[in-house]
Amino acid sequence: MIEINEVGPRDGLQIEPAFVATDDKVALVDALSDCGFARIEVTSFTSARAIPALADAEAVMQRIRRRPGVVYTCLVPNLRGMERALDSGADELNLVMSASETHNQANLRMTREQSTAQLLAMLERAGQAGVPCNVSLSTAFGCPFEGDIAPSEVERLARLFAGAGAAGITLCDTTGMAYPTQVADLAASLAALLPASIPLTLHLHNTRGMALANALAAWQAGMRRFDGAVGGLGGCPYAPGASGNASTEELVHMFDCMGVDTGVSLAPLMEVVAALPRLVAREVPSQLLAAGPRLRTHPAPGR
Amino acid sequence: MIEINEVGPRDGLQIEPAFVATDDKVALVDALSDCGFARIEVTSFTSARAIPALADAEAVMQRIRRRPGVVYTCLVPNLRGMERALDSGADELNLVMSASETHNQANLRMTREQSTAQLLAMLERAGQAGVPCNVSLSTAFGCPFEGDIAPSEVERLARLFAGAGAAGITLCDTTGMAYPTQVADLAASLAALLPASIPLTLHLHNTRGMALANALAAWQAGMRRFDGAVGGLGGCPYAPGASGNASTEELVHMFDCMGVDTGVSLAPLMEVVAALPRLVAREVPSQLLAAGPRLRTHPAPGR
């Protein structure tokens, strides 16, 4: 049994150049709610200037249908965003900083020291509000500016936030630099480091084609929670033309084939994926959408 | 240490709608010869009517530069093709039939019984000529018409041909239906069945995004020989829009990252891949071409 978190409404839509109407976002989340996900990352409470694509965070959170059993989570970049997310009734919050100093400064315009202090304050505030916070560590497997990142840096931050009340830690392969043995090694070292009550999640990108290989390696190493984005939405600003997040449907399909229960039903999920090209006005990098599940058979020629 | 066989000039170019000029094919093979492959599948000695894209098989074989240490192999569909390939001085021949009855009839227009008899006759003829023959078993992990294929059928055929003088057996995931645990299981059962002198090769397609995950699982299960096609050339006629063969450069890149020696140099290979879109007059499904190797770093913004 593994858990799949759908992050497409946030991590996917945030970089789409064409604004997706609030109605369509709500319909997307509602359709995803019926697929069996453990968790759906609905939106990000950031400034409308920073991420105009998600300027309607309150409206989306207000209008989605909350299906019992699904955890509706939101990304929050700072205390102000956290208050907005708490007001919107988010079930869980996702905080983020980078393991890489250069990436943290480029992406968040703060030093890692500043980000660390901010995340600790946010964990304290969320603790008062009684809302669990997951901490996502970007560039955990490499930085597009610095190259390799020492596992000890990731371990240091994970331990720090776990000790400060984080409900879970997500290792993010932000620009698709992870490879299978690296994933297995970091999964094992972190599992040994963190209390069993703090689950680890793996957030993969398919930038260099290795998303499913990395998911396999992580699963073999004992990881049981995976982020994915429907249709492989999302992207990598440093690799134009590269595909985005690990595609949720390809994760589900692979684990289905292997007999691993994901909780997610592939048939309704594929309906959501099939509707994405219209929603985002472009093709999506889903191999599974083009090919169909492996046992979809075809009529033999000449019969 | 693993071996990578480049099959793009045959398995990739055979389905390209635009005829690639003989000069360009020769230049492609010559460029590949300098990348460090164990084996290059140059062409197919089939009828020009069946596969017009490879109608120049003799000319290509005659004009390529033979780099010492590289095995130049050719696909041969029948005894007539075998004589042409032998006349052309192929170092090795690749014979093919399907594990699935329906696919064999659709693809080769023969029953499996007829194909088996033909392959046995070809193995005998090649043995007289002293040229090693590899036997490729298509649809080893599933058939687009029949669905799952019993592993016992693959095992039966592999054992039959190994006993009849085949120099190696290739398990082909012809339409991208393989998944990691299945690959590991079949790799293990065949390794136990065949003499150690008969190497197993895995031929993957990325139709459902699992090519690298399957390669990883196979490597973990002890397989050491992989086919790939530069740029992910090739395709699946039953899944329009689906990508083709496992991309050679993505296989090499993943194993490089893992510290597994492939013998192949990624830098000259990426130059070949970069030239492919012009060669085949379309984009190629190479994530690595779009993104670059994982440690290609970028300047930080604002610096």
Automatic annotation (TrEMBL), chains A, B:
Name of the protein in question: Hydroxymethylglutaryl-CoA lyase
Q: Sorted alphabetically, which keywords does the UniProt record give?
A: Lyase, Metal-binding
Source organism:
Pigmentiphaga kullae
One GO-annotated biological process of the protein: ketone body biosynthetic process
Domain spans labelled Pyruvate carboxyltransferase: 2-270
The record's section on InterPro entries has:
Aldolase_TIM, HMGL, PYR_CT
Keyword tRNA processing attributed: no
Does this UniProt record's set of keywords contain Hydrolase? no
Q: What Pfam families does the record tag this protein with?
A: HMGL-like
What family is this?
Belongs to the HMG-CoA lyase family.
Q: MF terms per GO, please?
A: hydroxymethylglutaryl-CoA lyase activity; metal ion binding
Lineage, please?
Answer: Bacteria, Pseudomonadati, Pseudomonadota, Betaproteobacteria, Burkholderiales
Give the stretches traversing the membrane. none
